[in-house]
Design goal:
Blueprint (H helix, E strand, L loop, with lengths): L2 H18 L3 H14 L13 H17 L2 E5 L5 H5 L6 E6 L12 E6 L5 H8 L4 E5 L4 H11 L8 E5 L8 E2 L6 H11 L7 E4 L15 H17 L9
Parallel strand pairs: 1-2, 1-7, 2-3, 3-4, 4-5, 5-6
Amino acid sequence: MPESRLQRLIGFQDDVRLSFGWNYSDDFDSAKSMEGAFKEDFPFGTENWSLDSRKRCLEEICAELATCDKLVIIGAAAEQQELSEIDFTNTAVIAADGSVGALLDFKPLTCIVSDLDGGEHIELAASKNQRFVVHAHGDNFSRWQRALDNWSTFSNPPSLVLSHQTNESLEGMYNFGGFTDGDRAVCFALWAGVAKDKIELVGFSTQKVGVWSGATNPETKMKKLSWMKKILGFLNLETQIKD
């Protein structure tokens, strides 16, 4: 991804904070805490979450994305019926948070981009050793701690990549730009080198709170979705959003 475009996608995060009246320090504190929690050789007592293991996870994801003919990114308004009609031959799939629940199985799934409010759907995926791009922000500080404490007890914990939404450089963490899980998944794919014309969005809507969304205030969620539309509009992908 060109550096200028990445910086604009990161810049949207400042715009969103200003719009909602959120403090940058909250996002920073959550991200720094996550960075600190993963500085150990075996974070949360889990060898699979070491810095080297997380780098390897990112490399594996990028390799799959580089060789696919098509990338389907699933949003919270996805319907199982429409997904069942897709030919997943040589197709990679990224699910935004709880939308992973729309998949009938995990076979085509490359990874899940999540701030961990997807409930039982991401819990199941984590228990099945799926790959996650786990995001830290000011409003999920306790949630990511609880989830990772729990996941570390699994016999085969999920593989992880860590992301954040600050302007600082944090060891072993990345800022791919974007704001909601859905548009951040798109930003991640573009950062990984996926051509825009290979991306197909399924279940992206600005008119309703998707069935796979985590618990949220509907009014706040609709405002968040308007920012998703602005970000995807900047990327010239807004025509794939359902009105």
